[in-house]
Structures are given as structure tokens and as C-alpha cells.
Fold this sequence. Notes:
Helix content: 25-40%
Strand order of the largest sheet: 7-4-10-9-11-12
Radius of gyration: 20 Å
Distance between the termini: 34 Å
Structural class: alpha/beta
Oligomer: single chain
Largest sheet: 6 strands, mixed
Number of strands: 12
Mean pLDDT: 87
Strand content: 15-25%
Shape: globular
Number of helices: 12
Amino acid sequence: xxxxxxxxxxxxxxxxxxxxxxxxxxxxxxxxxxxxxxxxxxxxxxxxxxxxxxxxxxxxxxxxxxxxxxxxxxxxxxxxxxxxxxxxxxxxxxxxxxxxxxxxxxxxxxxxxxxxxxxxxxxxxxxxxxxxxxxxxxxxxxxxxxxxxxxxxxxxxxxxxxxxxxxxxxxxxxxxxxxxxxxxxxxxxxxxxxxxxxxxxxxxxxxxxxxxxxxxxxxxxxxxxxxxxxxxxxxxxxxxxxxxxxxxxxxxxxxxxxxxxxxxxxxxxxxxxxxxxxxxxxxxxx
Length: 286
């Protein structure tokens, strides 16, 4: 993401409750915020616009994308990304604009005890229900090779893994699962996944954008170790999914395809029914 004064102005307008044309903001991060409900897309005939679901939620989500967004007003008028960090500090007098990420890493979760290693010391991953563990020193985090790593895109699903145990048990019987999330979004999780030998499963929304994230951000780097979680009943659920979101994504992702037969079958089903299905639908007793 290239941070410019124009981008900051647009984010401030969204935070204040204004709507923007959908064409005003582009990028995978925008698609992620739309999928998470932080931004809402509305159509008016042939035109569409986006707005924030709430100022607080937008600010929190933007801060997780880039800590500098924690103070949008101070960033207003900041020169674009081509200017050096030292020059930004001189121009704004705001040291927050030049700080490095203060919270690297990613969260992990599990409903089974998994003996891992962190900085050469043993650590058991089995957080109490309603909590999870954040791995900051991820470069030294080691897990058993037989553990299946499941990346959950949506934070609600990630927090409520026990309410989805029926799904995971059916899909991966007799497997120990370590659940991870790329929230806050960074390359730390993917870099860690590239370093370890474990098999990887991607659990995201069942839509073209979600498949694009898997192919471009994970399968591209992990190859055959990576697979996309496709529940046995997904075709039935797709028939009652969201047509509006399918239509919103179609032009951008209509040419998406995969040489993985199971994933191409899912793409075909999504295009057949012209619908998408949210992964939150698999949380029992929401």
C-alpha cells in the first residue's frame, strides 16, 4: 500500500461517515475490509460506493494494517512513500510516522495440547476458551512436524474454534491442529510457514476473493504443502449464499482458475450458483 496524502484524506472521510465511490479505493486490503464487514459496499444503479460500518472499527482495523494509521489526523498532508522516513519525521514532527512495527508475529490457537518450542524452551499451546496466544518471537517458534497448520482468515472463526470442532474433526480425523491467523496482517505468518515443513490448510470465505488470497499469498509460496479447506456440504450452502457479493467480486476475479482439481471444482460451483458463502456460517451456536 502506498501511503499518500490523497489516501489519508479518503480514510478520514470514511471515518467521518462519508461514502466514497468504490473506485476511489483499490487493493487487497480494501477487499479484506469489505469481507470482514469493516467497510460496506452499496449499489445505486450502475454505481457503487463504500462506507465504514463504524469509525471505531475502521480505526482499529487500519491500525492493524499499518500502525501509522493510528493517528490519521497527524498523517494528513504527509508526503508520499517515496520520501525517506527521516524526511517524513522532519516534515511532520511526529515520531509515530517513522517507528517500526511494535508488535510483530501472529496469534495461534488450539483445543488440543500441542508441545512446541519458543526460543529453545518448551511451551504448551492450549489456550483457555475465549483466549489465544500471540507469538511475537515467531522466528524461534517450532512445532511438531505432524501438526497440521490451519490458517483461519476471519477473526471470529479463529476465536471460536471449539464451536467449529465438528467441521474440523470431519475434515481432518485424528489430526492435531494448530490454528493460526495473519491478523494483524503482515508477512510474518507466511515467512514462518515457508520455513517449517508442516502441511498447511487455508480456511477462508468461499468466494472468488478468498480463493485469490489463498492462491496469491500462500499457495504461490508453499506449493503442494498448501490446500484450501472445502467442507463436504459447501455446494448445498452455496445455493443459499450471497449473490450480491459474488456480483461485486466478479469483474475483478472472473478469470480465476486453479490446476488443483478440488479448488477448481469449488470455483466452478461458485460460478454455477453465482453466490458466495461466509466461513462464519460454520460456527455452531453463534
